[in-house]
Design brief:
single chain, 161 residues, mainly beta, Leucine-rich repeat, LRR (right-handed beta-alpha superhelix), 6-stranded mixed β-sheet, 2 helices, 10 strands, 19% strand, signal, repeat
Length: 161
């Protein structure tokens, strides 16, 4: 091209690596108007790290996520997520480590049902001050560490019966 237009000078193209706010995690469906990101029946073995900041509901269902590690939701490029609803049902989750839900201070509903849960750390729910509903349906093999449930529902205890 430069040979065709030698008088025009040089052209320089710059490409930005900044992620557009509207982008959706690979193999997920995003509905910005409802604030919902859905990643269903995929081959995810870990949580997507590029959840849009506008998301208030994240549905990860039918994947192959066996462990929720500490800080699983705090690696979103340093941005705190606005999630109020998180559904992690039917993922094959067996272990939830300490501080797994750090970075989700506004979370109201957490669905962990239909997972073969074996162990939940006593600090798994640390920082979930707004948690109102925790679903553990069909988790028959579940073993709670001492103090797990008191930690998860501490806020409701503050207001009495």
């Amino acid at each position: 091209l430069l040979d065709l237009w030698p008088q025009r000078g040089k052209m320089c193209l710059l490409f930005s690596s900044v992620k557009a706010e509207e982008e959706c995690p690979l193999s997920c469906i995003c509905a910005r108007d409802s604030g919902t990101v859905t990643c269903r029946d995929g081959e995810h073995t870990e949580l997507p790290g590029d959840i849009p900041v506008w998301a208030t509901t994240l549905i990860l269902r039918g994947n192959n996520i066996s462990t929720l590690p500490g800080g699983a939701f705090s690696s979103n490029n340093g941005t705190e997520l606005e999630l109020t609803t998180l559904s992690l049902s039917h993922n094959g989750i067996t272990v939830i480590e300490a501080d797994a839900f750090t970075g989700l201070p506004r979370l109201h509903l957490l669905d962990l049902s239909h997972n073969p849960l074996v162990y939940i750390s006593e600090r798994a729910f640390h920082g979930l001050r707004e948690l109102r509903s925790l679903y553990l349906n069909d988790s028959n093999r579940l073993h709670f560490s001492r103090g797990t449930i008191q930690c998860a529902f501490k806020r409701s205890d503050q207001y009495g019966p």
